[in-house]
């Protein structure tokens, strides 16, 4: 039977009214959508694969506050929870509940680069309630998006690396805690979800489950499983109007993210079910890469706008779909069966517009490369004004969702819309991007792109652990820089990307040869990856490569869905001229800060 855990007398009086009022905040103000929430905490994720820690939360955009509910099963001596830039428990913003054997304490803390825990002088995590049951402890606390405390993490729209640690034994003081000796973990999530009204489903809506066939999850930390699904030959043209995840019960912490890809229409049956990196995987499966649906841990159902749906089935559509599931199994659990997947909701009553998916960013080519030992190397791809002027309809298109994509060294991705030489708005940005957490995200506001506009996609990479250059390409150890934008009405333009002109890259290799004793092979038989491998990576070769990518002409790929370019001259194109860039947004600090406790809050948990 549950019992309410009492706080210290020092906090009880001020927090009683807060605890009562906060539930009205949660139920009324936190969710601003058109449909009342079914739960005061609409978002839920397991933090660890054993289900010891579970997190629920809601968002109040009016108050710019998140309310967290952290459930700890079999609570022992303490728990740490918080956020960090890349998922480390060092240099992290943390809330800590710990016991000294007699009493329990709650505090806003931070960790230094050695993992040592320190009390934050500004207590921005506010404990609202603690409740104990027979087998778990539940904590309710809140924090503002931005606190302007240099030790606090700025919560934005992008990916958040949640971190946690479990204390097995009591400690005599907060300063006695060091994260290096704890059971720790990481979970990726988007905390600030876009809230859009839920469209009504038509009467003729049908469902299609695309699921894994009772897969035995490998006992490896990371597995990407590919499974091909064949549609009936008689399946006619429909519109997908919604999709959601189906996760096998008990596997919620193992199924990390899932994607459904459409194969090219000309492809023969690529029948396969197995690890995506298997040598048995047919090469033609690489031609199944047109994204139809994507889900990641913590994501809610995805709804298309009422006026649009994505077409599938019928003439010109491949009958083959590829389901890809990322299993994250850090404890290397053996023998777990899984039949998770994606449930599509579709209708034969076609909507006014076909939705389309367009690729922005860089062409998959080795001419775009990142030197080794770089911590923040930027590559940029362009969808030029010349291409949008030629390929977009007079009234333009409307982007409503976006999926950012790189391979293993990607750290940040952003796409900016420019018009008349001026950056106007950000289409999508993730300053804490992780290649292991990919989902289609609804935009807070639809972005309209007109003929003559420019779309600029930049990716930031970290190759600090690599000894040779990382070139662009399809391989997992090669790199990509892509934004799959979802828009309507669908046009013939499917790919609007660029790469540096190959001739100018060869001039770069010749220039490096002139200033170095080690020669880069510029002979015709040498491939671009081989040339990059032989580059002596010093300050000259690095800075010159940056200059090449920032100023050299580009080769534009303004491609139709048939992979044929629109008519025109697309090689040796000048970079778009941008005379005005967007300023970095400044955090919206709380205007009036309520006085917080001077030190840890004492919590009596018996």
TrEMBL record:
GO terms for molecular function: copper ion binding; dopamine beta-monooxygenase activity; L-ascorbic acid binding. It is a single-pass type II membrane protein. It catalyses: dopamine + 2 L-ascorbate + O2 = (R)-noradrenaline + 2 monodehydro-L-ascorbate radical + H2O. It comes from the Eukaryota. Residues 51-167 form the DOMON domain. Keywords: Catecholamine biosynthesis, Copper, Cytoplasmic vesicle, Disulfide bond, Glycoprotein, Membrane, Metal-binding, Monooxygenase, Oxidoreductase, Signal-anchor, Transmembrane, Transmembrane helix, Vitamin C. GO terms for biological process: dopamine catabolic process; norepinephrine biosynthetic process; octopamine biosynthetic process. It is found in: Cytoplasmic vesicle, Secretory vesicle, Chromaffin granule lumen; Cytoplasmic vesicle, Secretory vesicle, Chromaffin granule membrane. One of its GO terms (cellular component) is extracellular space. Its EC number is 1.14.17.1. It is an enzyme of class 1 (oxidoreductase). Pathway: Catecholamine biosynthesis; (R)-noradrenaline biosynthesis; (R)-noradrenaline from dopamine: step 1/1. SMART domains: DoH. It holds the Pfam family Cu2_monoox_C. Its cofactor is Cu(2+). Homotetramer; composed of two disulfide-linked dimers. Belongs to the copper type II ascorbate-dependent monooxygenase family. Catalyzes the hydroxylation of dopamine to noradrenaline (also known as norepinephrine), and is thus vital for regulation of these neurotransmitters. This is Dopamine beta-hydroxylase. It comes from Jaculus jaculus. The gene is Dbh.
């Amino acid at each position: 039977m549950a019992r309410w855990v009492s706080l210290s007398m020092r906090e009880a009086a001020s927090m009683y009214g807060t605890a009562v009022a906060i539930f009205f905040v949660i139920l009324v103000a936190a969710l601003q959508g058109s449909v009342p929430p079914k739960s005061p905490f609409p978002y839920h994720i397991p933090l660890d694969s054993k289900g010891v820690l579970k997190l629920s939360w809601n968002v109040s955009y009016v108050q710019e506050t998140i309310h967290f509910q952290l459930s700890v099963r079999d609570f022992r001596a303490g728990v740490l929870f918080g956020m960090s830039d890349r998922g480390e428990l060092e240099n992290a913003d943390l809330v800590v509940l710990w016991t000294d054997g007699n009493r329990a304490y709650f505090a806003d803390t931070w960790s230094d680069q050695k993992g040592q825990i320190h009390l934050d002088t500004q207590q921005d995590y506010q404990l609202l309630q603690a409740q104990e049951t027979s087998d778990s402890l539940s904590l309710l606390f809140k924090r503002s998006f931005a606190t302007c405390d240099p030790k606090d993490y700025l919560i934005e729209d992008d990916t958040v690396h949640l971190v946690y640690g479990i204390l097995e034994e009591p400690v005599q003081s907060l300063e006695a805690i060091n994260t290096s000796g704890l059971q720790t973990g990481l979970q990726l999530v988007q905390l600030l979800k876009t809230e859009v009204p839920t469209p009504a489903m038509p009467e003729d809506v049908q469902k299609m489950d695309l699921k894994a066939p009772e897969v035995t999850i490998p006992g490896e930390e990371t597995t990407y499983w590919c499974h091909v699904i064949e549609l009936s030959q008689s399946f006619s043209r429909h519109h997908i109007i919604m999709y959601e995840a189906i996760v096998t019960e008990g596997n919620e912490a193992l199924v990390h993210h899932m994607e459904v890809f459409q194969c090219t229409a000309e492809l023969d049956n690529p029948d396969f079910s197995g690890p995506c990196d298997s040598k048995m995987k047919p090469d033609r499966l690489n031609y199944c890469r047109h994204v139809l649906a994507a889900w990641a841990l913590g994501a809610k159902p995805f709804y298309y706008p009422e006026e649009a749906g994505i077409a599938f089935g019928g003439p010109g559509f491949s009958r083959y779909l590829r389901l890809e599931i990322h299993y994250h199994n850090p404890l290397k659990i053996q023998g777990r069966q899984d039949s998770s997947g994606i449930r599509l909701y579709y209708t034969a009553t076609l909507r006014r517009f076909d939705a389309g998916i367009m690729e922005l960013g860089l062409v998959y080519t080795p001419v775009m490369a990142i030197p080794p030992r770089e911590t923040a190397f930027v590559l940029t791809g362009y969808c030029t004004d010349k291409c949008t002027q030629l390929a977009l309809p007079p009234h333009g298109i409307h982007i409503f969702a976006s999926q950012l994509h790189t391979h293993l060294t990607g750290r940040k991705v952003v796409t900016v819309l420019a018009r008349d030489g001026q950056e106007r708005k950000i289409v999508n940005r993730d300053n804490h991007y992780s290649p292991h957490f990919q989902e289609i995200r609804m935009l807070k506001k639809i972005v309209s792109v007109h003929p003559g506009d420019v779309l600029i996609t930049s990716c930031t990479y970290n190759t600090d652990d690599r000894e040779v250059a990382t070139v662009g390409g399809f391989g997992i150890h090669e790199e990509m820089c892509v934004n799959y934008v979802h828009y309507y009405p669908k046009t013939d333009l499917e790919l609007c990307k660029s790469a540096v002109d190959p001739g100018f890259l060869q001039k770069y290799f010749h220039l490096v040869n002139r200033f170095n004793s080690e020669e880069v092979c510029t002979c015709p038989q040498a491939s671009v990856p081989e040339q990059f491998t032989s580059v002596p990576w010093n300050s000259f070769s690095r800075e010159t490569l940056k200059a090449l990518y920032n100023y050299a002409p580009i080769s534009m790929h303004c491609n139709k869905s048939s992979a044929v370019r629109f008519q025109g001259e697309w090689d040796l194109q000048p970079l778009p001229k941008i005379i005005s860039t967007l300023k970095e947004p400044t955090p919206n600090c709380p205007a009036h800060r309520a006085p917080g406790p001077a030190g840890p809050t004492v919590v009596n948990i018996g």
